[in-house]
Amino acid sequence: QSVLTQPPSVSGAPGQRITISCTGSSSNIGAVFDVHWYQQVPGTAPKLLISNNSHRPSGVPDRFSGSKSGTSATLAITGLQAEDEAYYYCQSYDNSLSNFVVFGGGTKLTVL
Amino acid sequence: EVQLLESGGGLVNPGGSLRLSCAASGFTFSSYSVNWVRQAPGKGLEWVSSISTGSSYRLYADSVKGRFTISRDNAKNSLYLQMDSLRVEDTAVYYCVRHGSPTAGFYDNWFDSWGQGTLVTVSS
């Protein structure tokens, strides 16, 4: 049971827009802590996709965007491409737990 | 180019010990907090431990507290994880991960560089 809740799976056709939600609480996302997103292609290490809710590191296409509101965050991918098929994880911090770093359970994106 | 190279994984019996190492290159290692994050087979990511630049702050997940010890040697650009009293549920790929900003604190930071991981299997 992850502290941050993500849908187990989402899917979309090439060219479409999808969103992945990440729901937390007042002790993590709803507090002052930012949300970060990672992409993991199976068999490889995770890669930073979005930092500080909406910042794209150098090299990440602008098809990827992030936002945060209240106790939730959202990752959006527009112009879906086959290479986007991967697992996506949100991450934040929590001030009510000993485990101060918290991850979402991960969302499998399937490009149809 | 930032590189993080883990080593030391392998097969160990329950109750045994293992020491993971991470060799860092391509950046000023002593300026960044670093972490261990693990992923059990077919499961999601789980934070294990973090250590500050000068080793003053060491944080652990509840699941490993009292059994794992994180340390670093800035002169050798290396991060370590001493794992004792290993359990079957510790079986996972262990990633060495760098914090993204050398100036932001633990709570304001993100994980910007990941090693390729080393597999630890705890089984009899």
Structural overview:
The complex is a heterodimer of chains A (112) and B (124). With 112 residues, chain A is mainly beta. Helix content of chain A is 0%, strand content 42%. Chain A has strands at residues 9-12, 18-23, 36-40, 47-50, 64-69, 72-77, 86-93, 101-103, 107-111. Chain A is globular. The termini of chain A are far apart. Chain B is mainly β. Chain B has strands at residues 3-7, 10-12, 18-25, 34-39, 45-51, 58-60, 68-73, 78-83, 92-99, 111-114, 118-122. In chain B, strands 2, 4, 5, 6, 9, 10 and 11 form a seven-stranded mixed β-sheet that branches. The mean pLDDT of chain B is 96. Classes of the chains: A mainly beta (112), B mainly beta (124). The interface between A and B is medium-sized, with 28 and 24 residues.
Which consecutive residue ranges of chain A, at least 5 long each, have pLDDT under 50?
A: none
Q: Which structural class is indicated by helix and strand composition of chain A?
A: mainly beta
Terminal residue distance of chain B? 40 Å
Oligomeric state, counting identical vs distinct chains: heterodimer
Major sheet details of chain A: 6 strands, mixed
The sequence of SSEs of chain A as H and E is: EEEEEEEEE
Mean pLDDT of chain B: 96
| Cα-atom radius of gyration of chain B | 14 Å
> From the alpha-carbon coordinates, what is the Rg of chain A to the nearest angstrom?
13 Å
**Strand runs of chain A, count:** 9
In one word, what is the shape of chain A?
A: globular
Count every beta strand of chain B, where a strand is a DSSP E run of 2 or more residues: 11
Helical content band of chain B = under 10%
Q: Biggest sheet of chain B: strands, sense, closure?
A: 7 strands, mixed
Q: Helical residue percent of chain A?
A: under 10%
β content of chain A, as a range? 35-45%
